[in-house]
Sequence to fold (706 residues):
Amino acid sequence: MNNLVRVSRDNDIAVITIDNPPVNALSPGVPEGIGAAIDEMNNDPAVKAGVVIGAGRTFVAGADIKEFGKMTAGGPRRSLLPLLLHIEDSRKPVVMAIHGQAFGGGLELAMAGHYRVASPTAQVGQPEVKLGIIPGAGGTQRLPRLVGVAKAVEMCTEGKPMPAPEAVVFGLVDALIEGDLLAGALAFARDAVGKPAPKTRMRTEKLGTDTDNDAVLAGARSIVAKRQRGLKAPLAAIDAIEAGTKLSFEEGCQAEAKLFTECLFSDQSKALIHVFFGEREVAKIPDVPRETPVLPVNRVAVVGSGTMGGGIAMVFANAGIPVLLKDVGQAALDVGMGKIRKNYANSVQRGRFTQAFVDERLQLITPVLNYDAFSAVDMVVEAVFEGMALKKEVFAELDRACRPGAILASNTSTLNIDEIAGATSRPEAVIGTHFFSPANVMRLLEIVRGNKSSKEVIATCMQLSKKLGKIGVLVGNCRGFVGNRMFGPYRREAQFLVEEGAEVEAVDQALVEFGNAMGPLATGDLAGLDVGWRIRKEYRHLEKPGVRQPFAEDRLCELGRYGQKTLKGWYQYDENRRASADPEVTTLVRKWSAEAGIAQREISSEEIVDRCIYALVNEGARILEEGYALRAVDIDIIYLNGYGFPAYRGGPMWYADTVGLTRVYQRICEFQQKHGELWAPAPLLKRLAEERKTFAEFDKEQVVAA
Ligand code: T1G
Fold:
């Protein structure tokens, strides 16, 4: 026995407890401990049955993901299959008692047991596709035997958790245990003694016929092709389940193992595992330790009921936090509340929320026309028009109206947080909370640290982001912070490429085929080309003389082509906002380029991708060396959750590592040759390329240095 798995007795029942905090992952020693415990149970004549249960907050969250890196680096391949057969062939019945999560290898372990009982709040699932892999311990073989082929395909391709009550309906869990889970499991085990223990692998009644399955599998493949474009693992999961419907259990497991290994050694899986740990790493702030006190945030206020303000108010209400929503006039407030009600109605229609949930949430949003009630709030998020003078005015008001200790946050996407804080007597309470549109949907929250933002305020906002269902990433206060600062060069190159002869659709198509949710030009049309135009006009004085600047988008705006909102931008739009190419834009840009003396040429999609993506990477490297992002992985998480960058490429910095920084650096030097100083390589990129290092290694260097 080892200290990861212990056996105790409750009279004639063995209790096998898995205790590997924080999530009882099947790390080295755990499977071995379970195997030994099963032997001890079977060899003890006084024992009639066994219960397997997890210590702490969960049953088993799956295989130890940290071990995968060792496997793909040539380490020993560890398989759970023999242990699961060993449990299934146990002479005495084994009851799996599930609380928290039974995910991945955790569910595969549970399915090898003869019975599964669960607390009502438990969840089960095969989330492996989120790591770019498939179940590798018989999950694609045992799950269809318990829930049927169609449900198994859905669970393994989407990777979503299934609540325990639903698992009972599908026959995956045999009983829900209200109250004391262990006591309920012991009673269930005692009841099972003497009865033939069902072995999941022997069950075939739910495997269906080839005719039925062929239709299900074909349907699933087309859904995956649309919804999980570019991802390999969901298709591999379908192949493994299909094998399970046509072959014996053993042959099915071999087919699964082969597909699992192919996925595990793929770039997609390495990227998605990078993302898994990255989403947890960004929560760690070196100089703001985990034990930093956090401030209470039980009541909030949002200033400005426009698109962003309204969305932000919904975010707080959805998290159960009462929110005051202020605007200057009743008319504006009515429009703002109207949009909120419409958004909620759409969510009910799409089945995302129930009407009851929405009614409760709307109760939590109180429209107001003044600051009278602001003395009772713990935090304010300002979301007024993007102008410095107005923001300062609002923050001066908030400084007067809010209680000492309240957090004053700005949703600005570009403006200087320290300058805004300067309008108050409490700069330590001022911070940026940059939500992304639509705020009630986008997961990213860029938390902008001002020079004087206190550690308590930072820690509070980082923790609050999780409560709001967001991924909070802490960034420094430079122009455009991290996301938008990098987006500038990315969209600059997209415009240059059109000015040099590429078709608008060709530029966007190349980036969509690369995996982006939307191309850079269509994204501009969605956000409104006038937003960037106004900011560029405000900062025109900062542009270096003699340095080429894109002109096409500004010229389109001068013609009133702001994008979707004017049904004309880079594309033209019908009343349902469906885009189509606009030959007038091509004619206009060709004319403007001729006037500017820009030669037209054929441009490959490879060049389009390299120029746009490497512009991101180069600016990202600058941001890292200037210290406005803590780690390269922070930049990756920002781009995945705020800018539709494909997760299976790991983010711009990870993608650059995958290509190889030497190659990226050489390509950027080529662009510098051809297109000038805008392409001057970031010194950090140059150093890492010359030292044949990666951004991931740079992050490790930071941890050591901290
Ligand atoms: N392996 C290693 N570490 C893990 C882990 C895992 N499976 N799951 C979580 N951690 C770490 C995590 O990095 C963090 O560390 C800490 O635990 C708390 O996690 C054979 C091949 C269970 C829902 O995909 O979804 O099984 O940052 O912050 O919000 O076929 O963790 O504190 O240092 O996320 O309460 C399949 C992954 C694996 C589930 C809990 N399993 N985990 O969420 O805590 S592949 C998964 C989760 C597999 C088999 C295949 C969540 C959670 P640190 P946390 P949480």
Summary: Residues 495 and 657 are 26 Å apart (CA to CA). Residues 22-23, 25, 61-66, 80, 101, 103-105, 108, 127-128, 131, 133, 135-137, 139, 277, 280 surround (2S,3S)-3-hydroxy-2-methylbutanoyl-COA (CB under 6 Å).
